[in-house]
Amino acid sequence: MKFSTVVFFAAAAAASVFAAPTLQARGVDPALVPEFGVQRGAGPDGTGNCVGLGGKLIPCSCPPDRGEFIASLNANVAAGHAINNPGIGVSFPTGQSKADQQARIVALLVTLQNIQGPGKGCPAVSTVYGQLQQQINALP
Known about the structure:
mainly alpha, 41% helix
């Protein structure tokens, strides 16, 4: 009886180790990432420039692919800083306070502007994020 009890517990312990779920880092909730609000490649002028917000010229490669952007944002948030510009801290709180919203919009802009390297990304006018930042900053 003792032998079968020991075998049962040993088997149960081994099974629980192999059946344990793996922990994965949670990514940013895409629902908290606003759409860019600008169409990539709109109004090309033939020299690599396209039209962003307010008619301002932006690279035709901007804004980036949303999936690529969210992947880069996830990497930045997980690292606590911009991967391509480590001197810039990044956080992405999920609350709705003014401070949380400001931190999220900063994370979005930092990711956007450094997505290809330090200062090598898309300008704020290639999205509505700058406008959203102004609206958030104007909140009481």
